[in-house]
Amino acid sequence: MNYGSYIVHLQKSLLKRTLRGEHYVKLYSYRYLINGFAVVITPRQADKLSGRKEVANVMLDYSVRTATTHTPEFLGLPQGAWVQEGGPQFAGQGVVIGLIDTGIDPTHPSFADDLSTDSYPVPAHYSGICEVTNDFPSGSCNRKLVGAQHFAASAITRGVFNASQDLASPSDSDGHGTHTASIAAGNHGIPVVVAGHQFGNASGMAPRAHIAVYKALYKSFGGFAADVVAAIDQAAEDNVDIISLSITPNRRPPGLATFFNPIDMALLSAVKAGIFVVQAAGNTGPSPKSMSSYSPWIFTVGASAHDRVYSNYVVLGNNLTIQGVGLAPGTDGDPMYNLVAAPHALKNNTASCNEMSLGECQDSSHLDADLIRGKILVCSYSIRFVLGLSSVKQALDTANDVSAAGVIFYLDPFVLGFQLNPTPMHMPGLIIPSSDDSKVGQPRANAAAQLFLFFLPFLLSFLASC
């Protein structure tokens, strides 16, 4: 019997002696980094276990969530670390990065292993497996994606797991895991295509490194500590060199010492085993106590600035230029386009032009296509977009239904303090991010104002994922 099997035997024995004749369900045995287990029991049974001298700590399982991006050039890699490694074609060679996340899309070109004829063997020290399921078929792994497994016992026991949406496999139905994997070790020079348009090339930070995926988070609910610790324990047993977690707890762990939680204790043992551990600082802040990575043995990564410039803008007929946000194609050629605000293009039988949703272009049935065809449709961007009650995608569908040449969103003055990210659009379009600049917001009916749209892609040659 090896040491790991001996640990599992002791855990089973403890449960049987303490909960003799009682019902319980053991989900995981943690045997490599920490000596512990995840078990479904009642509060009374938890009290009985905590009273045993063999038990150091009992903690209630808790939920976790994803946390995320950007850029070799911004970090100075082409002139720094990549030069030391011999260029991007060697950066990360021989290193296996274990990613605890929402899985991966194995068909993405960032994870192909046939982009070079150079020798690219799977590191001999890595001993992980590639799980095979209906939606993660045999052949999904390769010399780049060297391992893939999923962990969902806690989620399934809680009854929150949706097999059709969350996928009981390493496959990524959310996109977050694919995104973070490509940031860490995506292949170098992968074309970025958004809405059918080229936006430069992408690269991971260590494009020659190998990826091992340990899926423990899911699209519909996030994840739970019990599953995450099982993923960490397996990654360490598989001999990964780095463990990367773009995940954080949904709340501060209980107690004065935040590191007395199973995730941080497992990561401490991983560091002691020689694994470099990286965790996202979280998506909140900057403000006091906004950090979500608590322990000094974890290399915590947060973003304080970036060099992204969104150079999209519109030029009005009077040569006034207004900056905007949006990943979209430009208008064809040099013609000018008339603009029409949604409230001024309603059908005669529409009840009220003052209703907020009508100005947001969410329903083409209320709009007169004859008034809009070939013009730029102007829509309001209200708090309803922030709350998820309205969407840019739906407005684009509306613009397409009424044959608009493009769409402009002007910011409602009540939408304050929210960062507007560039949204992929399949037609010319942008969001004017400041209500002070929304000079096209409410043009007069039958106004002769015209505008010329330029949608210049920001520099995506250094974007880390696509």
TrEMBL record:
Keyword tRNA-binding: no
One example GO MF annotation: serine-type endopeptidase activity
Domain Peptidase S8/S53: 92-305
Membrane spanning stretches: none
Keyword hit for Iron-sulfur: no
InterPro entries, sorted: Peptidase_S8/S53_dom (IPR000209), Peptidase_S8/S53_dom_sf (IPR036852), Peptidase_S8_Asp-AS (IPR023827), Peptidase_S8_subtilisin-rel (IPR015500), Peptidases_S8_3 (IPR034197), S8pro/Inhibitor_I9 (IPR010259), S8pro/Inhibitor_I9_sf (IPR037045), SBT (IPR045051)
Family to which this protein belongs: Belongs to the peptidase S8 family.
Protein name stated in the entry: Subtilisin-like protease SBT2.1
